[in-house]
Amino acid sequence: MNNPKATPSQSTISSSWTSPQAYLLAAFCLLLGVALGYLFRGSASPAAAVPVAAAAQPDTAAQKQQQAQTQAALDQAAAPLLDAVRKNPSDYDSLVKLGNLYYDGQAFQSAIQYYEQALAMHPENADVRTDMGTAYWYAGNPDKALSEMQTSLKYRPGHPQTLFNLGWVRWQGKSDPKGAVEAWQQLLKANPDYPQKDQVEKYIAKAKEHAARG
Question: Which helix (H) or strand (E) segment is 44 a member of?
Answer without folding.
Answer: none
